[in-house]
Amino acid sequence: MRVVFAGTPEFARVALERLHAAGFAVPLVLTQPDRPAGRGMKLQASPVKQFALAQGIEVAQPRSLRLDGKFPDDAATARQALLAARPDVMVVAAYGLILPQWVLDLPRLGCLNIHASLLPRWRGAAPIHRAIEAGDAETGVTIMQMDAGLDTGDMLLAESLSIGATDTTGGLHDRLADLGGRMIVEALELASCGGLRPVPQPAEGVTYAAKIEKAESLIDWRRPAAEIERRARAFSPAPGLVTELAGEAVKVWRVAVDSADGGIAAPGQILSAGAQGIRVATGDGVLTLLELQRAGGKRLPAREFLQGFALTPGQVFGAQTA
């Protein structure tokens, strides 16, 4: 079976590595164009491109696949590469480009997507983040037959994973990437013998995982402590949470819900600050800040953070949203 692979970040690289290790012929990889990254903002290849080049796999990096779009020359060149690859199937994982109908129709078995949620819950761009933020007890991976909609195609395989009380997006991402890599190999092995059975997604339970916006990093201390704690885990390792004190931005990386009542303290008011953490009143309950970071500084446990940033009870964190 000839497999064209389309993906960009580490989540996709894991799947490509598993397909390669399983012996599938991968004549072509599609991935996003190189992007500036790091302090020097030098162009950096995606994890998928780095793996593909190391294995001697041809790589195409069109800015668009729409033949009538903004970059028709890119799309036409990619079309020629795809035709030359003669794929039986295309596997897509966190690619970042919309596939027009001509791409969906080109492979003999169509295009299969590795989606990091239990569809139809959390269709869209950020399913791992949103599952943690919402307090879901489980998530998983769905292998889906792609169609023209946004994650609306028939389900081919699905497997669940529990979400633990301390799971972050970073840790859950790695578990889901491993699961997705195993499942896509299983799906292609079944497809090769006609063993896949498409199942339409239920009409009930549809939710959308919108892209994470920078403004969401701001802590609104009027929100319940449990909600802020979930968002801290959902936004770790990126983009993190941020608040403000005395005109200085402070990133908050790790927190815990305190069982104590904040009493009449205003949301964002510091109740105590010591080696065990910085206790802050919220709109409902108390949150203990355990790991923080000043602008330009390192992530530090609260005890070390307080050695260079004196905080006293009664001060109030700002940066609340309107």
TrEMBL record:
Its EC number is 2.1.2.9. InterPro entries: Fmt, Formyl_trans_C, Formyl_transf_N, Formyl_transf_N_sf, Formyl_transferase-like_C_sf, GART_AS, Met-tRNA-FMT_C, Met-tRNA-FMT_N. It catalyses: L-methionyl-tRNA(fMet) + (6R)-10-formyltetrahydrofolate = N-formyl-L-methionyl-tRNA(fMet) + (6S)-5,6,7,8-tetrahydrofolate + H(+). One of its GO terms (cellular component) is cytosol. Keywords: Protein biosynthesis, Transferase. It holds the Pfam family Formyl_trans_N. One of its GO terms (molecular function) is methionyl-tRNA formyltransferase activity. Residues 211-309 form the Formyl transferase C-terminal domain. (6S)-5,6,7,8-tetrahydrofolate binds at residues 117-120. Residues 1-188 form the Formyl transferase N-terminal domain. Attaches a formyl group to the free amino group of methionyl-tRNA(fMet). The formyl group appears to play a dual role in the initiator identity of N-formylmethionyl-tRNA by promoting its recognition by IF2 and preventing the misappropriation of this tRNA by the elongation apparatus. Belongs to the Fmt family. HAMAP family: Formyl_trans. This is Methionyl-tRNA formyltransferase. It comes from Hydrogenophaga pseudoflava.
